[in-house]
Amino acid sequence: MVLASITFSYIHPNIVGWETGLSVSDQGTRPLGVAVIGAGYWGPNLVRNFRGSGSWDLVAVCDLDEQRARRVIGARSTVEVETSVERLLERNDIDAVAIATPARTHAPLALQALDAGKHVLVEKPLADTPDAAAAMVDAARDAERVLMIDHTYCYTPAVQYIHDAIADGVLGDILYIDSVRINLGLVQPDVDVFWDLAPHDLSILDYILPGGLRPETVSATGSDPLGAGKACNGYLSMPLPGGAIAHVNVNWLSPTKIRQMVIGGSRRTLVWDDLNPAQRISLHDRGVDLATQADDAQNRRAATVSYRLGDVQIPALPEREALGSMVTEFASAIAERRAPRTDGSAGLRVLSVLDAVSGSLSHGGAPVAPTSTVLTGDVVPA
Ligand SMILES: NC(=O)c1ccc[n+]([C@@H]2O[C@H](COP(=O)([O-])OP(=O)(O)OC[C@H]3O[C@@H](n4cnc5c(N)ncnc54)[C@H](O)[C@@H]3O)[C@@H](O)[C@H]2O)c1
Known about the structure:
This protein is α/β, with parallel strands linked by helices. The protein has ten helices and 14 strands. It starts with 31 loop residues before the first strand and ends in a 21-residue tail after the last helix. The strands form two sheets. It has an eight-stranded mixed β-sheet with strand order 8-9-10-7-11-12-13-14. Helices cover 29% and strands 25% of the residues. The chain binds nicotinamide-adenine-dinucleotide.
């Protein structure tokens, strides 16, 4: 991982003793002021979690539609309602903004906020194009502010467990990853099924794969049996380093809902079934060991193949809301002056793969390399 070197000259006025690594609230300082921009479908979830966090003081909710913002904060609330982003960004009691507006507005709003000296949390996807996303990452670096993306799944206990299991070598070398995210979904007016659903799988892969999601090529095929003018069912393959492959299936047309990822490793295979709360993750000491490599038909018979049929382990996972952990991570990254778990570069890598998916679809599934911008370093924020 390449880290840009920046000398920090900026110390947040609300942050005392950031060297301790404790969260903002732990340090006995006043919480950071935050405003949520966008009070549509997803914004209220951010509002609820900022309100419930000891690290944050929710100062205002901003939406072009004033009544929508009022409904979200409810009656008798001290949280203010704002309809102008310009006025919002002039306030000194707001240290950070969380942007939950449509994707095409993310870059202009985030750039405006960074320019005003605010830390920025952006809903996925980071922007609508890799170029716009790269401009956001650069602007955050220049402004020495935290730019974070809400890759919500990366804050679930299950994905945290998977990340740790891979990092600790529990699975051994990764041989393959199969991710299935299918159900009867809403056919979106502006994006295909890849842009709607695959950001979840890709952001998870970016977090759990050592070194992040950096496939050399992406191949995607899709089908549009309804004549919706866009892929409603799609398959995406990415060769991974060391001969492994990651495969993602996203589908709006399936009558059954499946949220499953299988990660085959040389030591263990991990199965994550997100719709099974009693057994979200199982670790299988089962697999195929190939002791000798066969190079022709005759030798193949002599190849030693053995099947491991060991135990299945079901780890106990805590139940907690991912968005609660996400807003805490945002505050901690600001306080500790470090990149958050899901920083702007993570958002850029995911977006770049999505862009390559579109390129591959328009070339009949041919492998397409993601843009090189994502292969350069990580954000080092203030
Ligand atoms: N993390 C997740 O799992 C998750 C889930 C759903 C949606 N999202 C993301 O959240 C974002 C918002 O999606 P949504 O479904 O809530 O959209 P939405 O259309 O329901 O709401 C968007 C709101 O933003 C407001 N708005 C638009 N431009 C604005 C501006 N310039 N200033 C102030 N307000 C403005 C609109 O009036 C609207 O109320 C999208 O990026 C989406 O991808 C993330």
